[in-house]
Amino acid sequence: MAGRGPDRQKRKLRPGKIRGSEAEPLVRKCLENGGTLEEASRVFRDNTGYSVGKDSLSRYWRSVRAEMEREWKARVLAEAVAERARSGRAVPLALEMLQAQVLEAAAALPDLALGGVPAERLSLVVCRLARAAR
């Protein structure tokens, strides 16, 4: 079945009718204001002359919400970096951010990719290096 299986998240979704269309801002506004998928479908059809299914709208709205969440997290992180930079504590924050990225990357790698060093061991080494840099 298409869309199922362990590689579902890895596959690149094909572009739908909604993204990039002239009706996208109106559909997005409708959904952001609490409109239903049926209402958003009607907005799309009224503005483009084409119909779009609830599944397509649901996938579009899910991707928009994911983008909004990533933007929000980036904004919060940027505000934290700016605040620490004003107070002179930017270097420890940069080290913490780097440490978190390395830990995420190490956890995603298979053990063999690290030349036999398990991801947990690499994480421990990174933590000790970060602690020593403080």
Please give a handful of descriptors for the protein shown.
134 residues; mainly alpha
Give the topology.
Elements: H1 24-32, H2 37-48, H3 54-87, H4 90-108, H5 119-133
Helix pairs in contact: 1-2, 3-4, 4-5
Order of helices and strands: HHHHH
Provide the helix percentage: 55-70%
Integer-rounded radius of gyration: 22 Å
- Uncertain residue segments: none
Structural class of the secondary structure composition?
Answer: mainly alpha
**General shape:** elongated
Provide the number of structural domains.
2
Strand content: under 5%
Task: Say how many strands there are.
Answer: 0
Helix segment tally: 5
Largest sheet geometry:
none
Description:
The protein has 134 residues and is mainly α. The chain has 2 domains: 16-88; 89-134. It has 5 helices and no strands. The protein has helices spanning 24-32, 37-48, 54-87, 90-108, 119-133.
Task: Summarize this structure briefly.
By secondary structure, the protein is an all-alpha fold.
